[in-house]
């Protein structure tokens, strides 16, 4: 929301009241009759978009005041107002207070209004730019965290190294072919990149066991979607990453785990990753079996289309491999 709050600081109260009376319809104006009072208002009643300060005031002059404002409230746009305009004053105001505008007394309300409008636009532009930069930094940090989590999983198990990245690659290709929005595709990519994060709590000997797993061992491995959900739930993702991770082993007919969801209860992003996960897993070598190859993997999802796997997603996946020559090269 745009901020149009302005603080006028001058030891001549009549001047402040005059500006307040004439400009109150255009701006949200507060007044202070000293630098000290101005600083108190900034701390207790802010944030302000603009501060206008007289130069000559007792105890604390305008340069000192605006310099302090710059230190304590750097986002506030600063304007100097004085009847003693000279090069020395202007230089001090610019260098120490980094003022945006320099106005001389007597200042007509029209000139003051113009200066405030420009200053408010500048303030809101700076705030908007910072928000964009902060969002980009947050996204970069999020990406780095996701990559670190992915490496953590795959560093434990050489057989599945790169599995999550390859699942993400296929999932994104499916999402694009479905015509999903870029934000949704990015959600799919992030979730796929860490969909097996819950395996960090699965004993490594279960993951790398060359023979068949016992029912107990299978039960432990089947906990990894729930564990992944619990790991990711506290993280403030913009999209339902933790839920997608929780659902990536669900099946349309309710035969999946951990919740036994059916049909529309499963997110489309989860359905995409489910198909990509099955295909990539069957194409890759595992401790307990060699790669089954692309044809068998595609045959698996084709056979169970509409039963376990979403028909549209399966058809798109088949087309990607059979017509578009998709491969898992990262």
From TrEMBL:
Protein name: Histidine kinase
Species of origin: Dethiosulfatarculus sandiegensis
Gene Ontology MF, one: kinase activity
Domain (HD-GYP): residue spans on this chain: 138-330
Keyword Transferase: yes
Record domain Response regulatory: where: 5-120
Transmembrane domains' residue ranges: none
CDD domains (UniProt xref): HDc, REC_HupR-like
